[in-house]
Structures are given as structure tokens and as C-alpha cells.
Design goal:
This protein is α/β, with parallel strands linked by helices. It contains 17 helices and five strands. The termini are far apart.
């Protein structure tokens, strides 16, 4: 398993620097890092056993995967979970991103069957723990052990994910974690070799003949590297107005910072760094798509997805040349009918997080013009 030690050393240095130090956050840093490194070591050891008991995973192909991408809070999760209902796809569940090992997949699969025989007491316990663990996010991003999720944990294990900013709000100083594509070529090769290895294990364990369906909202900074690894990738790009997506994402991080590092919220420094990063992601995604063949890329507006999910999903299938089975279309209609009745209770503004519309507009003037967003 690839591990980027420079990022670890950097977050430790920043956490204990005079500028950022607080006793509360210093304690929480060790509360996080020690269990994290123990868990990572356990996963590393179990993955070694995969080579002995399930060596066939190394020959598993990764042909024509589908990636649902976009800046965070743009509808990627909703799209992913609708498409994941189609049996022809294989997708990652949250627990599978935490335990990316064939042996773990087999163990949890067998344990789940036994648990269901006794009324699912273990599943109920885990769901309860999950609800408490993600308290504050339940109306923003619902998740749980069995929920379809992003593969972000693979990169958290490597210490190369923007998600590290939840506990370490120093995104401006975490260059490699936020933009893998700018790392030295040899390091990127090592990281992508590890990433391919994770995907191969997943497909081997869940359906070698299925289509890999991924959803990654924080992918922008490593999209070129993934494209080089998977050149036949098909991309569904969700686009939402920056004035809506940015404060919605900041609200997620702010919920964590409120509990873990209140100091980071005092002058909105962390909020501004996160907003600046997402602006860079908007621009990077826009530039990336220019060099992608049209048959590998479809763009979806967030408002179209929300207003008519069924029609939007059907459009995605047609654009990607995927067969829409009668059985799945019935399931899709049922789920999208539920979605139409859902009304979000949350409305976020840039100003409520110390952010400024004029600054966002200046950073994204080209994006506003291209997509016709109102300033």
C-alpha cells in the first residue's frame, strides 16, 4: 500500500506549529493518527494474504469503467446511487473502501449472511454507530457501511486526499494531497499501481464480468493520473453553480471543524482555502475535458438532474451506449418518484461562511461564461 510520508510529516508540523497549535486539536491529532495507522497496518497485512489465497485478482481486467465526477455537492452521489441499482454494475460500498481486501470482502459477506439469520443484530449495531459517527452530516450526505460510496478512502490511506482537510484544515499547504497530478511521475506511478490493485481486488471479489461504476467528487486533482491508468474510462460530469456547490461543501467541512478544530473557523481562513481549492478544481476539470474524446464524456447540469432524474439517467445511458433493461427502468422510476417528493431543508450562502461572491466570480469568470451561470 502506497504511503506518502511527506504529507504525514507536513500535517504534524503544521498541527504543532505556533500558528495553528491548540491543545484540543493536538490531542485529536493523535486520537486520529494512532488508530488510523493501526487500521492501515492491519489492512496491509490482510492484503498480503490475498496474494496467497486469491492470487487471481492480479489478472483482473478493468475495462471501460464509468466514473461519475464533478465538484462536491453537484449531484454525484445521487446519480451514483441511482445507477448502482442496476445489476450490471459493480460499485464500492463504504466498508469495502475501508477494507480493500478480497479476504475482507469474503469475511464480511459470510458474516452478513449469518447475521441476517439471527435478525441482523450486528447490522443494526453498526448502523447505529455509523449514525452517531456521522452526526451532523445526516441531512447533508447520508452514508453507512452498506451505502454506495466514493473510493476516497483509498487515497486517505495513502495520505493523498483532500479529505484530510476535515481534520487538518491546512489545504493551502497540502499540495500533493490536493493535486496528485502535479507530483513527480515516479511517485504517481507508484500511487496508481496501488490504486489499480485496489480496483482489481474489488472487481475480482464482486463481479469480474460487471462494469465498474465509480463516484468521486474530489477527483479533479488526480483525474489526469487516473485517465492515464484507465484510458478507456467513460466520464459523467455533473456541473452545478459555484454559488450553490461551494457553500454546501464548506458546510460539510465546517461541521467537522466545529467539533475538531474550532480555531480554524475563527477568521474563516479554512473556509477560504477550501473555496479556493474548489475554484481550482472547477477550472482543472474544464481544461481536462477539452482533450477527452466526445464518446468518453457526457456533461449533466445539476438542475436537469434534480428536475427530472429519470430522464437524466436515461440520457446518460444513451450517451454511454449502455443497455437500459426493463427491470432496471422499473426500479429507476420507483426511486426517482421518491426523489421528486424530497425537498432539501438546507440552503447555504457563501456569506454565512465568510466567503465573497465577487472573489468566486473573479476566480471562475471563464466557468461562469462557458456555462452561463449568473454572477
Amino acid at each position: 500500500m502506497y504511503f506518502h510520508y511527506p504529507t504525514l510529516f507536513r500535517i504534524l508540523r503544521l498541527s504543532f506549529s505556533r500558528q495553528h497549535f491548540s491543545l484540543r486539536h493536538a490531542c485529536l491529532t493523535f486520537v486520529f493518527l494512532i488508530p488510523f495507522l493501526v487500521l492501515r497496518t492491519f489492512v496491509w497485512l490482510i492484503r498480503l494474504l490475498d496474494h496467497i489465497f486469491f492470487p487471481g485478482f492480479r489478472k483482473q481486467s478493468l475495462q471501460i469503467p464509468i466514473y461519475i465526477i464533478g465538484n462536491p455537492r453537484s449531484g454525484t452521489t445521487f446519480t451514483h446511487r441511482l445507477m448502482a441499482l442496476d445489476q450490471q454494475f459493480s460499485y464500492l460500498k463504504l466498508y469495502q473502501t475501508i477494507f480493500p481486501s478480497v479476504i475482507c470482502y469474503k469475511f464480511f459477506g459470510a458474516a452478513g449472511k449469518i447475521d441476517r439469520m439471527f435478525g441482523s443484530p450486528a447490522a443494526k449495531l453498526l448502523n447505529g454507530v455509523s449514525r452517531k459517527g456521522f452526526k451532523g452530516w445526516e441531512t447533508i450526505h447520508q452514508t453507512g457501511p452498506e451505502k454506495a460510496e466514493s473510493d476516497e478512502m483509498f487515497f486517505v490511506y495513502a495520505m493523498l486526499s483532500p479529505l484530510l482537510g476535515l481534520l487538518f484544515p491546512y489545504l493551502k499547504d497540502l499540495d500533493e494531497a490536493t493535486f496528485v497530478d502535479f507530483m513527480p511521475h515516479k511517485e504517481r506511478e507508484k500511487l496508481m499501481s496501488y490504486y489499480r490493485d485496489c480496483l482489481q481486488r474489488h472487481m475480482y471479489a464482486t463481479g469480474p464480468d460487471k462494469i465498474l461504476l465509480q463516484k468521486v467528487a474530489l477527483i479533479a486533482g488526480r483525474l489526469q493520473s487516473i485517465y492515464e491508468l484507465l484510458p478507456d474510462i467513460r466520464i459523467v460530469h455533473l456541473v452545478r453553480h459555484p454559488y450553490e456547490s461551494i457553500p454546501s461543501l464548506v458546510s460539510m467541512f465546517d461541521a467537522a471543524w466545529k467539533a475538531l478544530d474550532p480555531q480554524a473557523r475563527k477568521d474563516a481562513r479554512a473556509n477560504k482555502e477550501l473555496a479556493d481549492l474548489i475554484c481550482r478544481y472547477y477550472t482543472y476539470l474544464y481544461e481536462f475535458k477539452k482533450n477527452l474524446p466526445e464518446n468518453q464524456f457526457i456533461e449533466v447540469r445539476y438542475e436537469d438532474l434534480v428536475s427530472d432524474p429519470h430522464r437524466t439517467i436515461c440520457r446518460i445511458y444513451r450517451a454511454l451506449g449502455i443497455e437500459l433493461s426493463h427491470g432496471y427502468e422499473e426500479v429507476l422510476e420507483k426511486e426517482t418518484s421518491k426523489a421528486r417528493r424530497y425537498k432539501s431543508r438546507h440552503h447555504y450562502s457563501l456569506e454565512s461562511f465568510g466567503l465573497n461572491k465577487d472573489t468566486i466570480y473573479r476566480n471562475l469568470r471563464t466557468i461562469f461564461e462557458v456555462y452561463g451561470f449568473k454572477p
